[in-house]
Structures
1.
Amino acid sequence: MTLSQKGVNELSNPYVNEPMLDLYIFESMQLLEQMELLILSNEKSSSYASEAINEIFRIMHTIKGSSAMMLYNNISTLAHSLEDLFFVLREDEPRNVDYSELSDLVLEGLDFIKVEIHKIRNGDEADGDATGLIESLRVFHATIKGSDFKVEDQNLADGAVSHENRTPEKQQYYISKVRTETTSLRNTFQATLRFEQDCGGMENIRAIVVLNDLADLMEDYYHLPEDLENEDSARIISEQGFTLFLKTDRSLEEIHKVLIETIYLKDLQLTNVENSELFNDLHQEREILLEDSSVKLPAFSSRDQVPNNYEEKEFHSGANQPSIISVSVAKLDQLMDLVGEMVIAEAMVTQNPDLKGLELNNFEKAARQLRKITSELQDTVMSVRMVPLTGTFQKMNRTLRDMCKKLNKEVQLQLIGQETEVDKNIIEHISDPLMHLIRNSIDHGIEMPSEREIKGKSRLGTITLEAKNAGGDVLIIISDDGEGFNKDRILAKAREKGLIQGSEEEITDKEIYNLVFLPGFSTNEKVTEFSGRGVGMDVVVKNIEAVGGGLAADSVPGKGTTITLKIPLTLAIIDGMNIKVGDSRYTIPTTAIKESFRPKITEVIVDPDNNEMMMVRGQCFPILRLHDIYHVKTDVTHFTEGIIIMVEQDNKTLCLFADELIGQQQVVVKALPEYIQNMKKVRGLAGCTLLGDGSISLILDVGGLIGYRQATKV
Amino acid sequence: MADSVEQDTSDQIEDTQKGKFLTFCMGNEFYGIEIKYVTEIIGFQPITEIPEMPEYIKGIINLRGKIIPVMDVRLRFRKPFREYNDRTCIVVIDISEVAVGLIVDSISEVITIPDEEIVAPPSMTKEGNRYIKGIGKVGSDVKLLLDSDKLLNETDLESLSDL
């Protein structure tokens, strides 16, 4: 019994913490991205707008608090230093700030936190050491402070910090004083809380959390120790407990319910203080203090209202904006699968063979309704998965900035059509390739500013990142106005690496430019930190091909280079043509099909190696018999009995021979079982799908089939 | 700590399944497979062939929207192929998250074979008992206990080279 009891307690803990951890990671990452954008946009104007400073201060404050809560001390101390820094910027508005250095430092800090959060996400220990960074932040902090004499309490060494600590408290009393005059309070409670020893020395933070939890219930309160932001208070709380006096019109039970839910709570004493003298005493003391500092008060309050205002603003904008929740992608995938099942189940019902030849008017009506709803449902689920490219595009700003600083080049990034939406799965695959391409453009494409001036271009290079819809695909075009590809150098390199066969006269310019996508190709003689190892393009091609996309390059010497990525909108559902070979069914993506026809025997040519070919409108294409390569038994072996489907991918065309076409259908792509995949990678199969009757059809991979033909030829 | 507790509970589940085997018949022999691996038994259903697979991988089936591969255990053991009939069953097993259907001649029963009734297979130089983990004695009968892991994952060198 005791064992199982303990088991429940022990087990429940990780499950309770996990959503919190997820939320922490998610929120922090969002805040960090937001902050990065802010910094980058402000850096250009070489001074920080006051809203931006406030916003960054608020973000750092949030991250500091939540990291301390989650016991990630390295993150929280770093966030604390950053917060201090922005506090000074906000309060003192120093003039001689080197904003470029500031941005560097802050971005470095951001990167550190990002790395730590990545570690946490992967289940590793967040063990990074930020001491060096904190030290440089401190130095910077001292520099901007030391040179500023305008603010009166500047001579205090830790002025900013203690200042900040003092103010919120006075703010509290100020508000409470006003309130006590207007509301009548029925109950006064005294609560003493003690926390677990192992809560990590963050007792004061936990106490603040308690206050936040109670904020809506309390009319007025006073707590011991008074100063919760001070490090010492943690020690006091751990020794003496955290004592809270509060006035409220809620009942003892309600307050108790809230308090007992405090995490790491060891001990709670909640009593109704009938005689509220103690409270009044303390309260009056506050009021006196308040009047003493009344001269300063307006200044304090106006300063401290900044965070308050922010919260309010956020609240308002939250009400106006469409409300958004974050959902795990796994759940979406599951939903997607289910909808796919439903589409199939719907077909199974409405096209049930048992219904054949029956006159069912009402059933038909209901079936039509069902079909309409399922297709709408499918569209909606698909649209849920669609994410605008904005985030991915914005990330490039950072790459651009870092590269320009390192290489001393001047480049601006122009973003067009970033609202174009793409499936979430695909977004994840194109971020790295885009970054590589941008790096390549800056490193190889854009010239040094001086060089550009000589050539009569503006000093500032431009890289344009454009996204647009084109049928079932999205085109992402990266163009720069740099020097363009050097055709001769590419050719020379290709020759050296043995990448071209045959005579060079036959190669078109476009083909030459596309040589750069071959593995191991890099024309940059020097290997720089960013590019030149010849692996970048390789990764780009691999990533893009992994999502079923393609790349093309074009260039005008001296004018610039354009690289076009073609990526499909989604991976999950494709338009497919179902075909039959013997008892097997196959599905070919409709996008790959050029035409299908019944061949005449005179059009078929057989070469001495028994390769079959077909003449269509004066052009000759190879024929691949599906029943032959997949060893399917079928009666249809003569070309005149079956059908030829002409498919094309990457400008290569192939004629597939099958028994007959079944029909066109939207199909949900499913991967082949892992067990099968591990056993052997079957050439020409991209996956499988369920047909309306519940049977399985294999999805053909046209690119693979074209390769098959070539492989067997060699 | 949490791990050890989790271990406890899974141990308990294992306890109720320990020593229990699903037995099925193939030809003249009875085989047993540990019940903890078995997720369900379904009747025979049409199989979609996958090209270029070893002979014993018959293809894939649609199990309520989940696509799983099926293996003909007869062919896996190099026994002659037998036409499927209405007694042919597919035993769906799940070994470390990999679901596979096993085609067997017919299902017999679930029996308990205590550890002391299980003997190690005699070591033969021939590959004959590669997939057999032990031999269970039930009364006067003998059941061959399958090593499911090897059944799935042992690469059959010959069949691969056949391709």
2.
Amino acid sequence: MRAAWPRPAAQRVAALLPTAVSLLVVGVVWEAWIAVAGTPVYLVPAPSVVAVRMSVDPGYFLGQGAITLAEALGGFLLGTGVALSAATAMAHSLVLERALLPLAVLVKVTPIVAVAPLFVIWFGFGVMPKVLIAALITFFPALVNGVTGLRAVNPGALDFLRSVSASRREVFFRLRVPSAMPYLFAAFRVSIPLSVIGAVVGEWFSADRGLGAVIIVAHANLDTPTLFGAIFTLAVMGIGLSLAVSALERRILFWHESTFIV
Amino acid sequence: MAAYVALERGYFAEQGLDVTIHHSTGQHLQLLLSGDVDVTTAAAGSVLKRRADPGVPIRAIALFGQRGQQTFIALADSGIDSPSDWEGRTVGYRISLPPEYLAIADAAGVNRGLVQEVRVGFDPRILVQGKVDVLAVFKSNEPDTLRKLGFEVVQFDPSAFGVPALGLTYIAREDLIAEDPELIARFLKAALKGLEFSFSHPEETLNIVMRYAGKEDRDHMRFMLEAEQADAVSAVTDAHGLGAMTLQQWQEFHDLLVRYGALARELDVAQAFTTQFLEAAYEEGRLVWP
């Protein structure tokens, strides 16, 4: 076993090869299927048509994507911040956990598309409802993993800190937070793509900007190349965010076994 | 509604058709184009827009909405009594800015620079919460929904401002029209028979609709039926029968859409609809049955 970071450039390229090949195969099969079946573009566009649409006006997709990205990151930071604050309180108090966890589950099981229109009514047409929906959808993974991680301390280390009369604050920052980090990064890997979905859902209901708005208008106009262009941009955004979290995890948790490869 | 009546009253069967009605939420056109259904409903504006871009091969075979489905509402106590009152206010629309709105604003001399226009989706509560002052809605739906919530509204119906918008149509694919015109003719005749029945037997029509409407409120269904019936008649239908349409109607609507940038390109309007099935169904303005 050895640490995965930093890896040689050649090894990183080799690691991406299977993904690139599988994407290429899917693209080729998709393109061939459209050509053979003669499927009209207003039902399903060929990948080449989507590529042309995006290459004609890349600034459009980048600009709309930047809006969605900002909303998603805002929601992620807000949802995660609130979740970690609640997790800290819940990790220290069983009563608080019993009081708050059912509410968190309620938030988790609430269909976002059912409450999104209400967020527009409550919070208007600006960025706020999109950020809040993104926050709502990212809240639960950070909360659950936060509580679990903050409690998953080494008993021996905890006994040692108590034996030297460490304060709760010292125990929290020197033991609980480091112990929770692997759990938190596992949550972030789940919740950061979810934040993009939350922002898009928010844009469906009121925005005139952002990739969610692009999707709604393109769908209404049977403009499938633009629709798939927006989906592709979202996919790239989600993958990029996930990779960024993984890279950050490897940098911060270089000492932890979760960043090792066998 | 005409199709439900035709199905339940056996009009399709009398025409030798075994019809299944599929429900969809906003996928009508895609289902038609993919061949999953043979006939569907579509707004006349959508027929023209989608023929212009991306150029889908569809044609209207009957026009049930002689006037547009869209209207604009404000709360009765908002002090908004005419389009000129829209200045300094917020107007909400669903997906894209409706050409009917632009036409009313033009006709009434509204300075749109003083109007905030926002996309607000489909929830009419946005109006009663004061997030918008004027809202684009379907005239057969939201005015009654809000009235039931205790909010009276004033309407700005585009037709009252001389805006020549058209409403709901039945459409079919051009290939099916060419390959099996008899099928389309029999379908439309039965549907027109159903529409006629709905006018003469509104309560029985509601009984039929409620079988498919699940938990919908019967009074609201009645409102919808009455609103759609009101828009289904015009001087054209008086002369030629329900569902009738003319080149002039379509041309005026097309020109409206072009003027306000709602069409990607100008069209040969005559190709967007056909009256061949209506002509086969009627004789001197009376439906020939069976």
